[in-house]
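Self-study notes.
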Amino acid sequence: MIVSLFGKDPRRTMIATLYKRIATGSRSPGLYAALGVPDTLEGRFEALSLHMVMILRALRALPSPADEVAKDLTDAFFRDMDASLREMGVGDTVVPKRMKKVAESFYGRAHAYDAPLNVSDEAGLAVALGRNVYGSEAPATPLARYALAADQGLRALDLDTLLKTGPVFPEPETFA
């Protein structure tokens, strides 16, 4: 009984591993060097958000229990954002306000990217990415091509493969 209380929860470990793989994919040097994602706090948030959106889209297309995995993964993302804010020295009284802004930003991006990804609209996705990632009205066409390829590859995976081997993202350099 005591071992089960203090032992590792396999589901939580699985989600943590998946989240770590997504975060690692979002930190690919090619995203920053070849595709020009700003190597800043904001740029890293944008890259992580984009990769999370693509994974959540893939999970949404899969049968249950993928919906539970998506919920747990989203929770892990927001726990990580909360911990990051605290590590940066944001005070306890300010964290909830900042987390609200983080959530609004994330869900806004998910909404902005979803429609173009649904219909493989490179131009529409490039405009949304340009605005969010680069803070520019100039389209981010290479990043859009990367995202479209990644989204298509992720949607070809089943839940077991996604959980066991993790997501496989394309090499960003091939889209520069």
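Second protein, same conventions, sequence then structure:
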Amino acid sequence: MIKRITSIIGLLGILVVVGCEEKLPPVAPDVITEKVNYDTDDPAIWINPANPSESVVFGTDKDTDGAIYAFDLEGKVIEDMVIRGIRYPNNVDVAYNFRVNDSSMVDIIAFTERERGMLRLFSVPNMKPLDRGGYPVFEDEENPEFRRPMGISLYKNPENGLTYAIVSRKNGPKENYLYQYLLYADSLGVHAKLERKFGDFSGVKEIEAIAVDDENGYVYYSDEGVAIRKYHADPEMGTTELASFGGEYFKDDIEGIAIAKHEDGGGYIIVSDQQKGQFNIFSRKENRFVKAINLSTTETDGCDVVTYPLNKVFSKGLFVAMNDDGTFYFYNYDKLQLE
């Protein structure tokens, strides 16, 4: 009887330990943005080349009557830069020096408009549409559920200057989950041309978060229930998976990805561990696990980071993460204590 009671007590002890997760000490944000109307999801940081202190954080507000919000570095909405009337915008990204004609280049944001099945493209900072209403994506899919775009990341090849949009979807097949589109301009305007289909999918949950390391030439995406997957970003380099890593460090959904770029190819890959309420950090070069941090956000989907000084508050750069109360949290990059 004593032996049986001891076994029961031991089992209860195991259950208590398993049920009580250790929570890392929280890191408070420097700025919390004003709230959006509906549901925040994904941010993208645009560094103003003329004046970094006037840089802008774009963020999606998911709804049938959604928007791409624009915030200054104090978290205030910049109303004349907000794009409204977007039917369920999901993810957003930024690229610099996109050539629109022989003599002119502009910075751009691209985002997905899920309910219309479109890739959208606007110039920054004047927020003019370049896409004539949008580019249809996943057009060759017979299943309408496989045509709803969700994640997006822009890739600019540092050698030839070509710019691409890599797009994921809400639901998709176990092979070729992502489509890669070349963005280019001619006398008729700006176009999106399908260049590549790639990307394995486990079949568990979905693929939303995508991030591209332009300088090193890699694209990473979250196969949410399994791992972070890595491929070459250049479509000419093929469609073979290079690595699949990190899944054992996550409680449940593997979500937003941000790449903190340091000199000589160093830096970190920061990935949201959504249900655990923290971020897992991996080295940019070797993709090895470094540490986990608690940045006080809840149920974080998207995140973004720049390692360039912007102002006194963000003197080492800026990390932005979505919070589930309709806001985005801003942190001085130094607060992540990665060095």
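Instructor comment on the second fold: The CA atoms of residues 207 and 223 lie 5 Å apart.
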